[in-house]
Amino acid sequence: MRHRILPPAGPPRTLALAQLINSLGDGAFYTTSALYFTTVVGLDAARVGLGLTVAWAVGAVVGVWLGTLADRRGPRGTAVLLALATSASVASFLFIRSFGPFLVAACCYAVAQSGLAAARQALLAGLVAPGERTSVLAHLQSTLNAGLAVGAGLGGYALYSGTRGSFLAVFTMDAVSFLGCALVLWRLPVVAPVNGARGPALAVLRDRPFTLITLLNAVLLLRMPLLSLGIPLWISEHTRAPEWLVSALFLLNTLAVATFQVRAARGVTSTGTAMHAVRRSGWILLVSCAVCAVSAAAVPVWVAVLTLLAGAVLHVVGEMLHSAGSWHIAFGLAPDGRVGEYQGFFGTGLIVARTAGPLLLTALLVTWGVPGWLVLGGLFVTASYAMGPAVRWAERSRPTTPLVATPAAAPAADTLQS
Fold it and tell me: DSSP character for 401?
């Protein structure tokens, strides 16, 4: 049973340890940050939201360049430096007293986080055989959710305490967690940088099939703000269900991913099985939307609660299948030597979903109500089925020779280590 819980020994397990350490801090940070900035710092909630939107937009753009930097300068050194930069960004929040410095710190945080995600993917690609990457990513996702769940509990205690000191302790813990992450990543073997790739810099921006795949994936990633924003608003505005159910549904999702993501990814071993998993996820997310729609105010409380729980279970099954399929597709289409660049660009889909999602979901679920759920489910199915032709287009457009030059001759030439 142990091999099902832990990733394989070696680099995969070290990557999982780094993921666990910083996800503990992030879980507490995500739970408390909004209230810290509004109640402790005293910033206006609307300005906080605007600042975070701008920050993540900047992070999405710069993250692609940082992914390229990881390819060219070495992913281990890049990841370590970006983990340290994230730690410093979180620590700077402790000294924020006005909107201007908050915006600068938020942009630094988003840039460092986006770049770190891309560098980690490039590091994983250099240390893990192609056939094992989806399985390892599933382990990392399970580890991430387990850490977030524990961290959210710690953050909840800080919210219960409500003191300035408890909020500061959470931010300090998150900053320290990224220091620990950097130290663990430093223990990994060096992955030699690529001297240069044939073709222009940031070639991913000219890769139209991959751009389409990233946009389709962004539609499927609307499942994330659906859980964090759409369903809470639906429960509050359109159902008789108790509002504490929001926390229960979030906990159910987190624990389910932590427990079953590895199992859900086992069948994804090729491009064909990856596209099949994505298509299945679209149908399951459609059914989840239809089931959640049944919880509208016309039904008794117990029916609303049961249907929302059933919808949440279907949602997390669709989430795990989509995650496994999209990981395999994104790695499989990234040319050798450009994994960090391509993963950085693919990660912008999440930023698009988080930026556009609140407006779209509010219009569909709060304004339209039940019909909005069906429209949203239709979007999921359409995007999942469009993914297949987009992937086949991308495969046809791949060059017949590798897009990578010979790696640097020095065996340990990770130039960002010093």
Answer: S
pTM of this prediction?
Answer: 0.79
* Consecutive H or E run containing 23: helix 11-35
What are φ and ψ of residue 193, in 5° steps? -70, 165
Percent of the chain with pLDDT over 90: 48
DSSP 368: I
Separation between Cα atoms, residue 300 and residue 284, nearest integer Å: 25
Q: What is the mean pLDDT of residues 78-101?
A: 95
Tokens 């900035």 label which residue?
A: 37
Dihedral sign for Cα 95, 81, 403, 218, please: negative
By three-state DSSP, how is residue 194 classified? strand
Q: In the structure encoding, which two tokens stand for residue 42, read together?
A: 């005293």
Question: Within the chain, how many helices (H) and strands (E) appear?
Answer: 16, 0
What confidence tens digit (pLDDT) does each residue in 112-131 have?
Answer: 999 999 899 889 988 988 88
AA letter at 179: L
**Ramachandran class of 369: left when φ > 0, alpha when ψ lies in -120 to 50, beta otherwise:** left
The helix-helix angle for 11-35 and 133-161 (nearest 10°) equals 30
pLDDT at 200 over 70: no
**CA dihedral of residues 102, 105, 106, 109 (deg, nearest 10):** -160
CA angle (127, 128, 131) in 5-degree steps: 160
Q: Are 88 and 118 in contact (CB under 8 A)?
A: no
Q: Give Cβ neighbours of residue 403 (< 8 Å, ≥ 6 apart).
A: 197, 198, 199, 203, 335, 336, 337, 338
Could you tell me if 252 and 313 are in contact, meaning their C-beta atoms sit under 8 angstroms apart? yes
- Listed ranges 2-6, 186-190, 412-416; the one with the highest mean pLDDT: 186-190
pLDDT, tens digit, 9 for 90 and up, residues 346-403: 988 988 888 888 889 989 998 999 999 999 999 999 999 999 999 999 999 875 433 3
Residues sharing a CB contact under 8 Å with residue 161, sequence separation 6 or more, in sequence order: none
CA distances from 89 to 79, 190, 371 (A): 15, 26, 42
Predicted pLDDT of residue 4: 57
159 CB-near residues (< 8 Å, 6+ apart): 31, 32, 35
CA-nearest of 317, 346, 335, 192 to 259 is 317
Q: Residue 227: which pLDDT band, with cuts at 50, 70 and 90?
A: confident
The yes-or-no verdict on residue 405 having pLDDT over 70 is: no
